[in-house]
Amino acid sequence: MSQYRAIRGMVDILPDDTPLWQMLEQTASDVLGAHGYQEIRTPIVESTDLFARSIGEVTDIVEKEMYSFPDRNDESLSLRPEGTASTVRAMVQHNLIQSPQRVWYRGPMFRYERPQKGRQRQFHQLGVEAFGIATPDLDAELLLMCRQWWKRLGIDDVLTLELNTIGSGEARQRYKAALTDYLRGHFDALDDDSQRRLDTNPLRILDTKSESTQAVLKGAPSMSTFLDDESRAHHDRLCELLSLAGLSFVPNPNLVRGLDYYNKTVFEWTTDKLGAQATVCGGGRYDAMVSQFGGRDTAGCGFAAGLERLILLLQALDVEASADPDLYIISSDENALGKAMLEADRIRSEFPTLNVVQHLGGGSFKSQFKRADKSGAAWAMVFGEEEVAQGTVTLKPLRSRDEQMTLDREGLNKFLAQLEALAQDVEE
Ligand code: HAM
After folding, report:
1. Is any atom of ligand 1 closer than 6 Å to the C-beta of 285?
2. Which residues on adjacent β-strands are paired with residue 118?
3. Whose Cα sits closest to atom 1 in ligand 1?
4. 3-state secondary structure 299-318
5. Using a 6 Å cutoff on CB, does residue 263 contact ligand 1?
6. Which domains does the chain have, with CATH numbers?
7. Which residues form a coiled coil (predicted)?
8. What predicted TM-score, i.e. pTM, was given to this entire model?
9. What is the pLDDT of residues 70-120, one digit of tens each?
10. Pocket test for ligand 1, best of 46, 50, 55, 125 (most atoms within 8 A of CB)
């Protein structure tokens, strides 16, 4: 019989990889918690219209990447392609935007893209959204928070912050018109995709990868000459705050992002260590979305990081995390197994940070030791006939040159306390 396989572009995260994922998510939750952000969890399915209206009808995501389907009641639903729209929907629905709010989320997102390294059809984002603060100090805080996370992960040296401002909606309309006029005059030199976008989403042409189109863009009008005064002042103050904090960035006037809801600040964190899928995190301001969703006029700003890409980056830098057991308990016979099980239970209550695996399913001492070794455990804890008779246990090191020792209850407790302290030191 043929075996089932995961759907193309949807990937299993296997037990060997989860310690790195847990480390990645734990550092984020620590950093975000330290900045007063609280977690929000929203459904994976929303009405298709929610995404179409906020992300934009003529974006790649809405035009060709959404997993949309009619439910049994013929309502069009979609698997979420991102988290901002759902978060705004939830905040408005539950009337939470009366005062400033800072929230974060993590979870799977779905986009029907061509799978490749760093690009999947089900992928995971960890995102942050803040509401009710229109001033650039918020944009600065979000970027500093990213930097804190990168530092804890040890990847701050390999990430570059690219920053731009795309101004107000009106400024963008004026710029769009000027850009379209200019590009129409060079229509034949544009690549196919850009020719198509000229009528639908001309700003997206700015971040084309086509060399011929890039050459045409060299002579194009620049967004900065069309910026409204308020957006310019906002951007200048943000740059000032970032330099005050020693956070350097690369201005990228062509950065427009693939979602239509942004205004003023947009940014991306990129790396040269991952090949084509170089952006690990992106975000910006979306001051119009809350009112678009029926809430009262409230500023919004946030970002989302792609967790698969961060994992690839950690792996490229040989960062490791392990969930190997501290102790692997083996026993000589049924009687010893019963004693061992009670002792394992006691140890887990009294030393809750230790990772204690008990050998189950029987087998000779030799085969149990083999399993202990394979588990990656630091120590084998042995309950043999003699140990049971004496009320002791034998501890045998599996990965170090420490001495083997036989300990009574008091000695064992001392040993376990040291082991716990050691494990905490390593974590810190
Ligand atoms: P986005 O740029 O579409 O922004 O996605 C954010 C990040 O998700 C990307 O930088 C990338 O790392 C990751 N990502 C996107 N698509 C894929 C994929 N197919 N496979 C793997 N990783 C992917 C947003 O989604 C906005 N909601 C961010 C935001 C939050 N803006 C304001 N608040």
Report:
1. no
2. none
3. 282
4. CEEEEEEEHHHHHHHHHHCC
5. no
6. 18-168+228-316 (3.30.930.10), 327-427 (3.40.50.800)
7. none
8. 0.94
9. 999 999 999 999 999 999 999 999 999 989 999 999 999 999 999 999 999
10. 125
